[in-house]
Amino acid sequence: MRSRIRQLISLVMALAMFGLLAPTAQAQTTDPTFTVTGSGWGHMVGMSQYGARALALGGSSAAEITGFYYAGTTVRQTTEVVSNFMVTDPDPLWIGLLQNRTSYIFSVLGPGPVGLCKANDGEGECPTQFAVGGETWEFRALGGGVCQFFKAGIAVGNPGTCRGALTWDFAAGTKVFFPESGRTYARGIVRFRPVGEGFHVVLEIGMEPYLYGLGEVPSSWPTAALEAQAIAARTYALRQALRYGPEESLDVTRQATCWCQLFSTVADQAYVGWGKEAEVDGDRWVGAVNTSAGQIVTHPAAPDSTVIIAYYASSTGGHTDSNVEGLGHLTPLPYLVPTPDPWSVSAAAANPYANWTRTLTGSAIATAFGLETVTGVAVTKRNLSGTVAEVTIAGTLGGVPTTIVRGGRTFRDAFAMRSTAYSVSGGSGIGTAICDGVPPAAGFTDVSAGNVHYDGINCLAALGITKGTTATTFSPTLPVSRWQMAVFLIRTATALGMAIPAPVPQGFTDLGGMALSTVDAINQLKQLGITSGTTATTFSPNDSVSRWQMAHFLTRLFAAAGGTVPGGTSSFSDLTGLTPETVLAIGQLADLGITAGTAPSIFSPQAQVTREQMATFLTRLIRLL
To answer: 7, 298, 330, 466: which is deepest, by most CB within 10 A?
Structure first.
């Protein structure tokens, strides 16, 4: 429970971020609803499977696809980079099928037999029993580390330890079916390994046979996309096997967890067994595995023989994340950098997750995060890729208005949403009441309290729209460049609760050398219809923003945020030579009260906008909304 002082601080932050005084629980009579609009599915790190599909349809090869999603990498043969158990052992992989079981039921498909083995049963060399086609058996823990095979509920043979195995001849057409999971396994050896009072169920298998059973993408997809998936999956499996080592070297923690190097679920990779090979077009997937046999993705900076961690997911929202932002890692990996990914959301991808929505109630959000009521939710910080870094939630706790901040992934996971590429709208809206009063001082040493723009600068700092040019300076009289204006406008739009699209390149050719976050803001600004650039292919990012350009930027942002733009009859006498659209925007800006000009009847349209003026203009716009 927060202290009273902390609650008051939270109240100030609530006003700063949301501009609403959250009512007490008793005063709230309706349950607000919030709409989450998102794009993509998965952690959005590394290769996008739908993006790979679109790239393949566009003519890219498997190596080109992996090279696009894994920066600075090269496709090489496994034998070129490793010479350990992964190439000397024909079945080096141990795949965790089921964990912590006390009973395991299986049926034999095909002629059989399936050899049954358990250690220390006193029956001699394994296998000591055999299950034939059509039979259903059970491997059961009896307690005390003892296990027994049962057929039709009757024990067969002597009990032994819970270290056992099922073996069969796939060439003869024999397979093993697990009724519980509905999976059929045709390749490898099923192993039982003891844990506690039960056992783990593990599949020992070779690399290529393992890949045959991966159910990650439809087998009907373009060949290059299938090959790229096979290469990425092989790389991921190899990296995990190198990480944990051979079965006999698994540490006690891994033995207790699964006695495996990889899980058969999306915790690692979705291994579905024989069903993948047997499905319609399954031969195309097997062919892609065979065509790419042994191929892996490498990077000179990657450990473990340069084998990368080949993360992949269904699709991005138009931009991949770094491993730090998407997965919460502490150390960035050089081959997993934020990258524009228009392919994931292109028409060619036919991605059913390119756009999705969720509706959440205030009460559901309150329950998830330990509040009494929730009145406002806003995305208040985004990563370089445009995915959500932070969500601020306003509501009440103990009858006192408060705010809490949660990570974008935490908010996603709380409601099982598809990705972190989302925006939130609804509720009481995202206001900025602190900018209507006296905002807290930002502490910039070069902005005095007597500066007419003081409140505006503090307002923007409180809302996170600007952080200054250094930690202690704002540089108020410097002109605002067009790239800076793009960043300020996108941050303002975010603070206002607008749905910000995932950045997609808009054809500007003059953005080289700019930070990725800046490029994204410029592209997003065009996507929102707030700018069209200085030409069809240029944005002129380093040019200073003139007052007439500012009029366009602000009136378009005001309209996009849901404001009603007035008629815009201008009384300024110095607008000769400007386009009618520009004259109208200047008049609208004046009618809104955002500017009265530089002097009576004078607007000075060609004058540069300074950083302090920009702060005042944006603050006035914010107050109108």
So the answer is: 466
Structural domain contains residue 338: no
Query: How far apart are alpha carbons 94 and 85 in whole angstroms?
Result: 12
Q: What is residue 435's predicted lDDT score, i.e. its pLDDT? A: 60
Cβ distance 195 to 259 under 8 Å? yes
Structural domain includes residue 345: no
Which pLDDT does position 20 carry in this prediction? 34
pTM for this model (two decimals): 0.74
Last residue of a domain, one of 387, 411, 431: 431
Report the C-alpha gap between 58 and 67 in whole angstroms. 15
Domain final residue, candidates 326, 342, 365: 326
For residue 344, is it within any domain?
Answer: no
What distance lies between CA 332 and its chain's CA centroid? Answer: 15
| Contact predicate 466/616, CB 8 Å | no
**Encoding tokens for residue 417?**
């949403």
| Structure tokens given for 589 | 């800006």
Same domain, 9 and 82: no
List, for the chain, all residue ranges whose pLDDT scores fall below the cut of 50: 1-27, 429-433
3-state DSSP assignment of residue 311: coil
pLDDT of residue 437: 60
Q: pLDDT tens across 215-264, in order?
A: 999 999 999 999 999 999 999 999 999 999 999 999 999 999 999 999 99
Whether the CB-CB separation of 405 and 392 falls below 8 Å is answered with yes
| Owner of token pair 């999976």 | 183
Q: Coil, helix or strand for 371? A: coil
DSSP for 201-238, written as a single string: EEEEE-HHHHHHTB-SS-TTS-HHHHHHHHHHHHHHHH
What is the distance between the alpha carbons of residues 108 and 114, in angstroms, rounded to a whole number?
A: 7
Are 162 and 236 within one domain? yes
Collapsing DSSP states into helix, strand and coil, what is residue 116?
strand
The total number of structural domains that make up the chain:
3
Give pLDDT tens digits for 278-310: 999 999 999 999 999 999 999 999 987 899 999
Q: How many CB atoms lie within 10 A of CB 445?
A: 11
Number of Cβ atoms within 10 Å of the Cβ of 239: 22
Report how far apart the first and last C-alpha atoms of the chain are (Å, whole number). Answer: 33
Residue type at position 153: G
- Residue 248: is it exposed, middle or buried by C-beta count within 10 angstroms (0-12/13-18/19+)? exposed
Q: Is residue 333 part of a domain?
A: no
Q: How far apart are CA 461 and CA 492, in angstroms?
A: 11
Clarify whether residues 280 and 217 are in a common domain: yes
Instruction: Give residue 113's identity as a one-letter amino acid code.
Output: P
442 and 418 in a single domain? The answer is no
Amino acid identity at 91: D
Domain that holds residue 367: 4-39+355-431
Let me know whether 579 and 547 are in one domain. yes
Question: At residue 191, what is the residue type?
Answer: R
